[in-house]
User: Which sequence fits this backbone?
């Protein structure tokens, strides 16, 4: 470590220590105020308040007030104090609602009296929630205000707010999301965007007569995807259980039972790495359509994503990311063949018949490492190496190797590949879909091959699921199935990393 670096580290540590000491002192001061309020018989956290309206409603109703104009309309509202200025006979405070809307409260000697004004100055701090009652006016500076005639502490803040003039660092934003929501409009926008996306997805599914269901989070064996599961133990049943890595096998049971169009939005858990596009816990959408295939699921997925984008942007398919750049989600998205696009980019023909040794030699020459090597894994890793960076539009990558997709129907005209696509947006995989494998005999063979991989040390390989096979033997109609990460959908629309799109992400 250089002398300059060491000095910077020492300075940062000192600043952190000073900030902690200041916070501790402020905390004690506020605790003392709380105690004084209680001793005086005043509730620091009342159960109810005589609220008649909200800050956003007042701002909407009185937006046309002229500078200095006063009304005789009396309201009662509450908000968090994010700015405060006390003068001799008049105190000003900015009250903020949960959506970030603000209104000024003016507490004057003439309106509330000497005792009430003194209590305001003594007990009210930044971060407190307060209730104010009074007339709606526009101040001499043109600021929409409440001329307070009565007020009450709604919730006493024991810890101070961060400095609203400084940006919160990423760790604080993630670990203390409540502060992020209080001080940063972009954080509130992300929550609203996610809510709009979820409402849009459900509306689009409803328009196609899909039914929403819920399937188990705790499963007796993991399946539906190739991933390392979280393992837990049930004391009640004295058995090993897995947090689900995918709802697929249960949703297919629903299709067997006659729910021809079904979807679920819920949490998945995968005991794997965490980075800007991966989280151990994430929200997943899966949908299945009887008598559909992967081409129809591509049509549906494009509609779902484009409708979600419109819901966030107010109607546009050109989204603006967090860094200010724009991205066009409009038009018909291209559909490219995995083997064809790989062959073109690599400058040599690669097919399902290409020997493993040739794929290995190509990977070695390009410095591509492949774990638990099979033909399919080599093809997929090489495709990512050669092709993925060239995709500048949302793109469906069609027709995958058979050995990496054990739940997928083989291509109806091309041996060695399956009817599967991955949708890539912004360089990452957003969604995947299959023409589903519904032949229980072939499905058993695929499960057995997966079990062999698991026995060979592959922690992501699936096991033979006898209960699922029993369901398939009652006949599942030809179907298309699709899965899409909700957090990644938000990433595609907002340009944020996955930890920003999840309200409370898992952190160490």
Assistant:
């Amino acid at each position: 470590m250089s002398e300059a670096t060491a000095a910077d580290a020492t300075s940062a540590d000192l600043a952190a220590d000073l900030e902690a000491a200041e916070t501790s002192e402020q905390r004690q001061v506020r605790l003392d105020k709380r105690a004084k309020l209680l001793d005086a018989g005043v509730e620091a956290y009342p159960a109810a308040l005589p609220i008649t309206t909200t800050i956003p409603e007042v701002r909407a109703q009185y937006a046309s007030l002229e500078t200095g104009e006063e009304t005789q309309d009396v309201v009662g509202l509450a908000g968090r104090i994010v700015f405060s200025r006390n003068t001799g006979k008049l105190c000003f405070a900015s009250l903020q609602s949960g959506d970030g809307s603000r209104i000024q409260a003016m507490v004057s000697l003439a309106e509330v009296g000497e005792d009430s004004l003194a209590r305001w100055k003594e007990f009210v701090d930044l971060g407190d929630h307060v209730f104010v009652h009074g007339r709606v006016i526009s101040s001499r500076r043109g600021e929409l205000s409440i001329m307070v005639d009565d007020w009450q502490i709604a919730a006493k803040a024991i810890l101070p707010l961060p400095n609203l003039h400084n940006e919160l660092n990423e760790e604080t934003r993630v670990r203390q999301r409540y502060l992020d929501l209080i001080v940063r409009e972009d954080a509130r926008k992300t929550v609203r965007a996610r809510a709009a996306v979820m409402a849009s997805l459900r509306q689009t599914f409803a328009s196609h007569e899909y039914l929403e269901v819920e399937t188990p989070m705790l499963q007796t064996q993991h399946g539906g995807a190739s991933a390392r599961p979280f393992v837990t133990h049930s004391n009640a049943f004295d058995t090993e259980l897995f947090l689900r890595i995918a709802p697929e096998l249960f949703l297919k049971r629903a299709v067997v039972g006659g729910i021809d169009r079904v979807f679920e939005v819920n949490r998945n858990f995968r005991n794997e790495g965490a980075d800007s596009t991966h989280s151990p816990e994430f929200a997943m959408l899966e949908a299945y359509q009887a008598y559909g295939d992967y081409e129809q699921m591509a049509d549906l997925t494009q509609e779902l994503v484009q409708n979600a984008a419109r819901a966030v942007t107010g109607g546009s398919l050109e989204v603006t990311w967090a860094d200010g750049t724009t991205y066009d989600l409009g038009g018909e998205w291209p559909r490219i063949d995995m083997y064809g696009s790989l062959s073109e980019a690599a400058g040599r023909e690669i097919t399902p018949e290409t020997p493993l040794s040739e794929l290995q030699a190509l990977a070695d020459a390009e410095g591509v490492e492949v774990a638990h090597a099979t033909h399919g894994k080599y093809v997929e890793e090489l495709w990512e190496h050669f092709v993925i960076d060239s995709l500048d539009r949302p793109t469906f990558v069609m027709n995958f190797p058979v050995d990496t997709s054990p739940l997928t129907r083989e291509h109806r005209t091309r041996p060695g590949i399956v009817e599967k696509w991955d949708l890539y947006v912004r360089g990452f995989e957003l969604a995947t879909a299959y023409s589903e494998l519904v032949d229980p005999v072939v499905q058993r063979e695929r499960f057995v091959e997966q079990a062999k991989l698991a026995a060979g040390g592959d922690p992501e390989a699936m096991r033979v699921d006898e209960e699922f096979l029993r369901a398939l033997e009652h006949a599942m109609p030809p179907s298309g199935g699709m899965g899409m990460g909700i957090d990644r959908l938000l990433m595609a629309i907002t340009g944020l990393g996955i930890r920003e799109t999840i309200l409370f992400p898992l952190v160490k």
